[in-house]
Design goal:
mainly beta, 5 strands, 12% helix
Length: 67
């Protein structure tokens, strides 16, 4: 529900360079290390459904689908 609220808010993408690492974020959400191509605003996404969450060795994995 929260993700779909962020999508409806159409948060714009912002990029930054921090300690030599490109960071990407949307609106006031925290930025994360960039891994590739990104939408210009979250409103470009469809509805997101979280299918599963798991944590292994301190790394969180999220399985999701976008409709």
């Amino acid at each position: 529900t929260r993700i779909n609220q962020w999508i409806a808010a159409a948060y714009p993408r912002h990029l930054a360079l921090e300690d030599g690492t490109r960071q990407v974020g949307f609106g006031a959400l925290p930025a994360c290390a960039c891994g590739g191509t990104h939408v210009q605003a979250l409103s470009e996404l469809g509805e997101v459904t979280i299918l599963a969450l798991s944590e292994k060795k301190g790394a969180l994995s999220v399985r999701y689908e976008i409709n």
